[in-house]
Amino acid sequence: MTKHALSMQDAILKLQEYWAGVGCMVMQPLNAEVGAGTANPSTALRVLGPEPWKVAYVEPSVRPDDSRYGLNPNRLQTHHQFQVILKPEPGNPQELYLKSLEAIGVDLHAHDVRFVEDNWASPALGAWGLGWEVWLDGMEITQFTYFQQLGGLNLSPIPVEITYGLERILMALQGVDHFKDIEYSDGVSYGEIFGQSEYEMSRYYLDDADIETSRALFDAYALEARRLVENRLPVPAYSFALKCSHAFNILDARGAVSTTERTKAFSLMRNLVRDCARLWVEIRDELDHPLGVAQAPEALSRADAPTVSPDAAPADVLFEIGLEELPASEVPAITVTVRELLTTAFASTRLAFDDLRVDSTPRRVVVRISGVPAVESELEHVARGPRWTAAFDEAGAPTNALNGFLRKNGAAVEEIVEVDVNGVRHVAVTRTLPGRPVTEVLSTVFEQVVGGLRADKNIRWSDPELSYARPIRWLLALWGTVEIPLAVSQVTSARTTRVLRTSEPPVREVTSLEDFDSILRDEHIILDRDARRGLIVDAAEKLAASVGGTIDIEGDAGLIDEITDLVEAPGPLLGSFSAEYLEVPSSVLTTVMKKHQRYLPIWVDGALSNSFIIVANGPFDEAVVRGGNENVLRARFEDAKFFWRADLEKTPEQFRLMLDKLLVEDRLGSFLDRSRRIEALASEFAEIADLDAEAATVVRSAGAVAKFDLASQLVIEFSGLAGTMAKEYAARAGYDEATSTALEEMERPRFSGAALPETVPGAVLSLADRFDLLTGLTTVGISSTGSSDPFGIRRIAGGIIAVLRSRPELGISIAEGISHAASGLAVQGLEVSDAVRAAVLDVLGKRYSQQLTSEGHEIAVVRAALPLVDSPSAADHAIEAIESWLGSENFTAEFEALLRVVNITPADVAGEIADGGSAEDAAFAAEVRRFDDALAGSAGIDTFLTALRDLAPHIDRFFGEVRVLDDDPQVRRARLGLLGVIAGHARTQADWAELKPLVP
Predict the structure, then answer these.
(1) Residue 260: what pLDDT?
(2) How far apart are CA 169 and CA 176, in angstroms?
(3) From CA 811, how far away is CA 798, in angstroms rounded?
(4) Cα 523-622-548 angle, rounded to 5 deg
């Protein structure tokens, strides 16, 4: 144990004392099993409604599925949370939380404490919120959430929930590697108190719990909860809903919940909590809110702007928006958003400037504007009045119309001038509109920017008007040394910025842009994203070289970008782990390092080394932060090794049968159902593609265990390893390399632009997987809408298009893919209507268009080729041919001749080359016959365009010599028949009308 570290008992007492000191009531745990402190009525019910509520309590959190018999150093079936609710959120919850860490002995100057995006949701509670997981030297120690909804009800006022993981915090503070070694009180260990119960309850949850008894309890608890709701007793009703949830968790840990049962159970529990929540709100309203009603804060007013001399020299402008830590993805996004908002806002002003720059970090977005004058430029404005003839009467005196115009514009008759408007004389007056002071203009512009901020996911906090990815906490605006006053709802500007929270003092006064830059420079805060990234890469390369290794700058580019946007004062350092963990596949270890910890792996001679790069934030004690991160990674690797070894005890065939317990979607069945559909569909695709015997055998062999690794513990824990572990486990189970590789390639492409299957069997399985899922999801009414695409419809469709484009030799069309997938779903009782088939085709067409336009092709050309999208590779070739044609010498003449034919010929006219008619008809018929003969069979677009080149002059001559729509029906029919031959061929090649915007 680390010297002077608190015992767990003392840490709990310190937290209770601290939060009581800031106004929280200290409550006791619930006398029932709950999976988290959130489920305690002191949170789940009390966050509802308008009453204020501040509370803190310890909650033993029971999670049967985390049972490990007390063997895993970090996983317990019962762990302890310290739960804090602040309702409404006080405006400085992060600062209050950090002080609580200091109260239990966390040295914020030595440790790396960070707020890392984690968006929380509990489907069973109908609850969600946005916030962070708080890291202490890489270990998640707290969930910090701005609650937005519970029981399906929007929350107002907004509460903040702070959930400490006590065992994790105490392990870090005491420097122990296993929860059993935590000192609970003086001389007594955690294991001595809870070790026996961990083992016995794990035995119960995993091995001995009677399934039928648990089922009966689940049903009885649900029934009683429903009865109590009907009797308008929300508190006991909710307590039975919690008992119902725990009974379900026991059944789940025992592996006794089927996919259908899981869906029904979650729906039942969600509805029970929803009804309890609504009833609680009703009852509290009837009781007239005994705890009172939290008053909504009012918007604040802007301070008066200081006077600026209009003759003052131009100055540089600083504008800073300070926030609580943004999600990494929003850091570059806010730069773009603010620049766009500024451009729009400045467009409505007359304020000039030389240059504008926007930079961002997780806690701030900073705008620099150079060369800004003291006032806007003047504007000469001509106000137009009535017509001259209506402005004066016969005696030449001003009319009422003119007098009204003059009063409106504060002008005299002597100031009137004459203007001509479309040949009509009008009276007018000229006015010079003076420019507004720079402070007034910038106040308006900057307030518009702050009020206009929006992200992909926005939250509400205590502010009555603002909504953004994370709360906006401070504003700073200066013109030279002059403060620009701002007020946006509850946020007002001051002549201060905030630096690192561990700095002394954390709030600094700013006199100018130069002073601001100096302050940030002294704090090692790097605003320039490229510079921040460059520092990280340079330092990481040097650290890796110090152990004889390298980092994968290109392969880990996305991770490096994310790390760049998680810190504003980066501090890279070297860590290491025991080489014994290298027995676990490197793909597993790097997934843990990169996805969960944002570490950069180090490679030596192409192999993973036991060293890695940590990037902390701000000043810290290197030994403390390195040791903490190494401990975290060791614990993560212990979990991975546990899962790895457990998974090796099962065969792919055994895993596949376990897929029955994993739900795709209620109507689409389990993953075992889906695996079987993929198996059948892949075999059908293999026949269409006429694969050789060896490739067909691989498809059948891999299809027979398709998706099996989704049931493995490693993939359940690390979903990004799907496919990777299939290849690993299949190879270890004796499958040949081709089959193991196909199982991995079935998951490709994993995202847009990612690697495609490299083998034919892999491509066939990839298509079978995606056609089944896309057709199935569309059949049950799931689609992508706007920015919402929870099932990855666009990604699935993009994968189909990418694979078909890369593998034209397969000869699998989109229509065939949809049709065969529909047949597989029909076996399961799902009928795929014509409307659904059309919807799937539409999604695929849109994904095709998106891919081609993102590659730089003109949208008009892509749209012209869309009729061929049933074979994306054929559409690709059509685009290539059209683009070549566009650059040809006679494109315009040939295109106009073709479009004239297509436009005049109705789609239902059958092409026919009839004998007889005039000499002109006969001559043109001969040319059309040559054209038709050239396109005999299945001629492609190249042949069509070559034949069109010869025919185009004859088309022009024909239209010039005859009247196609002749009054004689027989003549008209014959001439349209000739044009119908041309139009018929043309319409099978492209939608030519789409090319009109490209004609010079």
Answers:
(1) 66
(2) 11
(3) 18
(4) 110
Tokens of 776: 């199935």
The two structure tokens encoding residue 564:
């760049």
Residues 928-962 have pLDDT tens digits of 999 999 998 777 899 999 999 999 999 999 999 99
Other beta carbons less than 10 A from residue 543's beta carbon: 21
* Joined tokens for residue 779: 């059949």
Q: Which residues does 891 contact at the CB level (< 8 Å), separation at least 6? A: 885
> pLDDT (tens digit, 9 = 90+) per residue, 397-426?
999 999 999 998 888 988 899 999 888 999
| Closest by Cα among 471, 94, 442, 126 to 266 | 126
Q: Token pair 């200066």 is at which residue?
A: 478
DSSP 594: I
| Pair 265, 271: CB distance under 8 Å | no
- DSSP for 445-462, written as a single string: HHHHHHHH---SS-B--S
DSSP state of 125: G
CB-based contact 277:45 (threshold 8 Å): yes
* Cα–Cα distance, 536 to 526 (Å, whole number): 11
Work out the angle at residue 293's Cα, subtended by the Cα atoms of residues 289 and 296, and round it to the nearest 5 degrees. Answer: 155
User: Could you say which DSSP state residue 867 is in?
Assistant: G
Secondary structure letter of residue 295 according to DSSP: P
Q: Rounded CA gap, 508 and 976, in Å?
A: 82
* Length in residues, the chain: 1000
Q: How many C-beta neighbours within 10 Å does residue 66 have?
A: 19
Asked if residue 634 lies in contact with residue 626, where contact means CB atoms within 8 angstroms, the answer is no
Q: Could you give the CA distance from residue 83 to residue 145 in angstroms, rounded to a whole number?
A: 11
Alpha-carbon distance of 587 to 599, in angstroms, equals 14
Contact partners, residue 882, CB within 8 Å, separation at least 6: 861, 864, 865, 941, 990, 995
> What is the distance of C-alpha 598 from the center of its chain?
18
Six token digits for residue 862: 């892509």
